[in-house]
Specification:
The protein is an alpha+beta fold and about 325 residues long. It folds into 2 domains: about 150 residues, 3-Layer(aba) Sandwich (Extracellular Endonuclease, Chain A); about 150 residues, no CATH class. The protein is about 25% helix and about 20% strand. It contains 9 helices and 12 strands. The strands form 4 sheets. It has a 6-stranded antiparallel sheet, with helices on one face. Strands 4-5 form a two-stranded antiparallel ribbon. Strands 9-10 form a two-stranded antiparallel sheet. A hairpin with an 8-residue loop joins strand 7 and strand 8. The termini are far apart.
Amino acid sequence: MAANPGGTGYTYTYETGGLYATSRTASFEGPIVRRKTTAGRAATPDPLAGNTAQYLNDADETEMALIGYENGHLIALSLGGPDESSNVVPMSSHVNQVTYRAVETEIYDDTGITHMRVTVDYSEDVFVIPVQFNISIKRGAHAADFTHYKTIDMTEQAAQPFAIILDDYWRAATQIIVANLPAEKQPGTPYAFLDALRPQLGLPEPEKTTFFSVKERMMIMYVNALYNAEYGGILMSDLPIELDPFVTLVLRGGRNRPQVDHILPRSYGGSNAFANAQLISAAANNGKKAAVTEAQLQAALADARQMPARAAHYTGSYT
C-alpha cells in the first residue's frame, strides 16, 4: 500500500494488483469544505483503475459489467472533495444515488464535522469492485484522531423476488389483480388488462403525455413478477435480448434496474395507460430516449418489438 497527496489538503492510499497490475484507492481523507452547488462540473473521472466496465469485460466478468457501476466520489464534491480519480471508485447506482448520498447529506448538515476519511474494502474475486465503505470523521481541526461514523455495504446486486408490503389497499389490490390475471402473458401488451380494472383499483383514467404514478408502476412490476413465477417471481424485461441487454432486472441495480417505459413516448402523446407500458432496464430506456426522433416516430408506433398486432392497437389509441 502506498500513500500520495490528493487535491489540496487531501491524502489517499492505494493498492496495486489485479488485471494489468492496476491501482485502486484504499483510503481517502481530508477537510470538509461545504459547497452550495456543484453545477457546471465536468463528468466524473474514472477511478484509478480506469473504466470499470472495460476492466470487468477484460477480466471476463461480463455479468458484473452489465450491472453498470457508476463513478462515485468517496468525499462528495458538495463536501469539498476533489474531482480526481483517487477520490473515485465504482459504486452501484443505488449505493451512489441513495445510500451514500444520504450519509453525505447528514455530514453536510452537521456543521460540527470538519474532516472525513473513507477506507474501502474490496471484493476478493474482483480487484476493482468495493464491497464496503468505512466512514470516519473528525469534529474540529484539533481533534486527536478520526472516529467511526458509518459503514456502507455494497454487496453484489442480484435479482430478488419482487414483493409489495401489504397494507389494506395493496392487500385488496393484489387480490383483484390475481383474480383477473390472464392465463398467459399477452404479447406486446402484458399489462393492458389492468386498464379495465382502474375503477376497482381506485385509479383515474389515463391521460396523454402523463407519467405513470407510483401505484401504476408498482402494479406493473407486480404483474411482471406474477408472470415470472416459474423463475421465482423476479422482474424480467419485456423486450427481447436484441433490444435490452438485461434479461433480469434488479431493483437496486445500476443500468439493469427496472423502469416502466411508455411504449409510445410521452413526447408523441403517449399516455399512462397500462396498455402503453413495458418494463425494461434503465439501459434500454435511456437508449430509447436517445434514439427517438421525429424520423423514428413511425418505428415507435409500429412497436418497439416489431409486432404488427401491437402497432395496430397503438395507432388507433394514441395518435
